[in-house]
DNA sequence: ATCGCAGGATTGTTGAACAATATGGCGTGC
DNA sequence: GCACGCCATATTGTTCAACAATCCTGCGAT
């Protein structure tokens, strides 16, 4: 029946039009915010009862929220001990950059979303970060830098890959907090984004890709060195 | 204290040495198996009470299992209506292949795990699939083909990317079941894997990558066409 | 046939309960 | 003083029961 198809279609398109997120999702949102902001530091124990009482939800709901955060790798469960804010290891950092080295250059070099307008949007993102630097807005620089890489990955044109990158960037923020948020950490990378975008504007996509690869390799080494000298 | 470091380290290494998975994970495993095997078809409703009674677990545990499957995109929640086995749409298929087009060629062309031994392992996988074809083992051919692509992605050397690919392949199986599991579907692709591996053995990594890209483009079109003529 | 409306079923969420496991303190023996 | 074993306590893992909110179904009225 045509009506069946219609209701099916309506259901597929907007998974939720304006439906409020479930309680578990709201709890997860609140916790995620605190974690990526650094308010909840790596290694912090997330006690079910404490959090439930603090946010006004039952243990079962908190538990569902934990499951979401664990799936995002922002938290880790230690059986019969509890859930903790994740503390990325050197191995985790290497894995993050192995992922980024695979995805970001590939998206930049062959992403189907590439176009003059896309390059213009990337330029805007870099400029916004530069304004933040001139204002001394350290957090803004970091955020702008993340937005640049997020936008690069978006060129791949895949929701799934975007989602993966979202998780990568969230875990990167955890890594930065773990190192104590050195204020000057992100600053030098702005100029390297500038080089990449200039290559793109000059039509040199391969050159931009090579520059991005070098960027990622240096950033990884930078972080790993910082991790061993805390 | 050194002892603190030790217990920390011991905890990091083997997340669980021999610990049995939790009840929720076991339920999720059972359901996942049924889903990717095709025993639970796309669109099937997963009622909390029914499944709980069938497997002997409480509603809360079932709910946690559902959360896992939903995170893997093998199931979808429709608020206040229930959880259903996911039914991939044409858009989902396009997204799957956008992801594969990004990841697989990149892993093959620049993955740090590439080596003569890795090529030899890929050769073995292809040969195993070929044996299945000669035996008329259709399921074996499909499985061998998946194993080939899984192995290609493994060249990237990232757990995270491997995990992404695991989800992609699981959803691919859902797509195949959705189309009715045409017995001859995977057969032609074996020869294309053969071409790829021959390029690799000849030292032509770029050629193999190009062949892989063409493979993926054709497979995507093949599937999308089949979807519109069911 | 369309609309509205009650009745029943299922989900979303809560609260309480209990076993299993981990943590920390205490005493004991060396 | 310190290593060891033991017990009290706290927390997790899981179950069960309950209730409101929402959705689906069928029936009757228009």
From TrEMBL, chains A, B:
Record's keyword terms, sorted: DNA-binding, Transcription, Transcription regulation
Domain of life where this protein originates: Bacteria
UniProt keyword annotation of Disulfide bond present: no
A Pfam family matched in the record: FCD
GO molecular function: DNA binding; DNA-binding transcription factor activity
HTH gntR-type domain residues: 21-88
Protein known as: GntR family transcriptional regulator
Native source organism of the sequence: Humibacillus xanthopallidus
